[in-house]
Amino acid sequence: MQMKQCIIYLLMGALLCLSSHLPAVAQDFNPDNPAEPYQYNKLTVEGYPTEAISSLSGAGYYMEGTNVRLSSSRRSSLYTFSHWEKNGEWFSSEASPVYVMENDAVTFTARYTYTPASPDEPMLNDNRLYLVAEPFTACSFNIASGLSYKYDQTVSIRATANTSYTFLGWYKNGMLQSKSLSYSFNMPEGDVHLIAKFDFDPANPAEPEGDGSQTNVQTTPKGDANGDGVVDVADAVRVINLCLAEEYDAKADVDADGVVDVTDAVATINIVLKAK
Fold this sequence. Notes:
Helix content: 10-25%
Strand order of the largest sheet: 3-1-9-6-7
Radius of gyration: 50 Å
Distance between the termini: 177 Å
Shape: rod-shaped
Number of helices: 3
Number of strands: 17
């Protein structure tokens, strides 16, 4: 009998030890629905259009009653947040709403709309205009090269020629488009490369402007070192003084060798003697 009681006491102690390691069971546990106390439901977060989305948060598995913060961020300023949808139905216009998890799986979608700076010009398939001067120093343009235009937009360009350049025309793909410095056209689909061609034609500095019938053109006699219009002893003295001072005067450089020296003095004296 005592042996049997000892065995019973040992078994009761073992049960007490085991019970201390078992998880506590909620008092409101319903045996008809055993998964309910620890059921986790899936929350999915998506974004549309996908190219607008940079990041999404809030997705995961949650117990019923859990507060879940939803949020999203855009990839580009061309997109603006519109609203959240829950299982395809409108849910909230707040950018970061809180959802109380229900006892069911749910999908949220962050909706964005495409809103470029100019709604009627989505800046897709832009066409660019490139301008080149030939020679490159020949002119300047009224607009910068490389600007973008939408299809069929009117483009007006103008070239201002630099000194000594004559305009030949606007060329595209080797074909003459216009001979006017100002040129307008409608932008086609695709980039346009225009070349403003010029001819370099500087004025001849050796040819004075006019019709060639100039009158009253005064010339200085050879040897007239003092420029008084007469070659005499005074000019010879002027040349000698320039020689001694090692100075230069083109009127005294009779032999035009770039130096006023004794040779010029002798030449001046000979001119004076011949005039006698």
